Give the backbone structure.
Amino acid sequence: MRPTRNENPKSEHKNKVKHLKKKHSISVAITGAGGSGAVTTGLMLLDAMSRAGFYGYMSRSAGPQIRGGESAVMMRFASQPVFNTDDRFDVLLAMDWHKVERFADEIPLDSQSLIVCDENAGEIPAPLLQNGAVCRALPLSKTAKSIEGGRANMLGLGVLAILLGLTEQAMQQAVRATLGKKGDKVVADAIAGIERGMQFVVAGTQDLRLQPKSTAQKRWNISGNEACGLGALRGGVRFVAAYPITPASDILEWMAPNLEKLGGSLLQAEDELASINMIIGGSFGGVPSMTATSGPGLSLMVEGLGLAVTSETPVVVMNVMRGGPSTGIPTKSEQSDLNLALYGLHGDAPHLVLAPLNILDCVFTSEWSVSLSEQLQAVAIVLSDQSLGQSRLVTDPPDYAGFNTRRVVADASTQHYQRYQLTENAVSAMAIPGTPGTTYTADGLEHDERGTPSSMAADHQQQMAKRSRKLAAFDYGQHWAHVDGQGGIALITWGSSSAVCQEVAERLRDSGMQTRVVALRLLMPLNVQALQGLIKDCTSIVVVEQNMSGQLFHYLHAEQAIPARAVSYARPGPLPLRPGDIVEFIIAGVQADE
């Protein structure tokens, strides 16, 4: 494959790409101005499809406003698990045309797509019709006025229910689950609107009904941020200090009440500088601790993380990435904090960097990160992103990992206690303040084995080697990456790009092209030897990620983990990576080599 990047494939390859087998699914988008109920409508539809036996994925997009403004939800439903958006959308329900052009690139439509809108909304924006989508204008707002408490979005939801083959029972259950706390009248009004919307006839549309997969097992409806919080609690976190920041705040909102149920506590700090030092203090006191932030907040935490590294205090930082730099695009996703997480700490500061591979994997990876941090007395930075964090998934519950590892703690019987003793595995017992006989100096200065500050070269070299060796020599097992398939073609990826690459591999395999996916969960320390072994016989190697500069690609080259013939497929946000685009890129490269 030619070592080119960010190029469009030649047009002669596109016919082959179009005929590749795709996962049978239905994609639906809902847009509207603030107050139109677009997000609520999407949540109800996701719930109803779940009750009807389908799997689902829902991402959301919003403008840059602090409150209000336009919003969109993008959903995909199937009879098998789905973890990412498709190449196109079958239906767009537009509650109005308020700045909807901002979402035109995020909601690709074609001649097989249907737009459902209010006939009083005005002229349809040209970008939505440029690829031949069919529009059906219905009297949504007019009809809503004839219903007590009627809302146009509930009528629109009724239209979607008919198109997707949902029953009134499923819709009623979804309404009660979503709006039940608002009272019986609100629920009754919403149901009346949906039932009226289900009476509309949308002529000339394709059959969008799926065959549900029967299951007796109750499925989860969970977001990535909720999954990260759940994994952290399972890992043993009982203290959280954080300052709210988009798109990580949902973690804190979910954890606050659930921590309390387990006897833990959450403190909203005055800023990120305070929050990182608070969790260092909480962990120093013996309580597994974490914070959640996004790129700008992680930048502010760097000095504190250095303190945690040198004092070997375990802390976990959940970093939910967004478009950058600076304030960037807070409401959109991008995998562009990798370099900061890998290299941003001052001095030689060995630490862990992990990334969940999909929404469901957020549970596992977060739990594992807490376990590793506690066991290795190390800083763990977990790189989620807006696409993972604020999207929702209807899926089967995962197995409980049940990591039982905890930090090594000194007891009162310890003789001649040395906090930073040079042990065989480089992990030394950590004292809980107040334990008799375990007093030591704890600060950010370099130190000897006892903890006494030292500027001697020998102490510095020994302690640096200790901090590095305990991470490098640890056996991480098979969890360092998720590996699927056989080469020919190797796709190396990480984080939220992993689910897209999995679908790319399925399409390529269906066309007869052997494809292996290596989705990296543990990014630092990197398992170079194992990665080299997985790709050594592959004829084409593509590194896929959602950032402009190819940060993982260059990191893998710097670590000599991939050969010079590997190529990069790097795209910045905020548009999601789409399976079809990556397939086109790969086929173009393969055919160019033939």
About this structure: The radius of gyration is 26 Å. The mean pLDDT is 92. The CA atoms of residues 276 and 563 lie 38 Å apart.
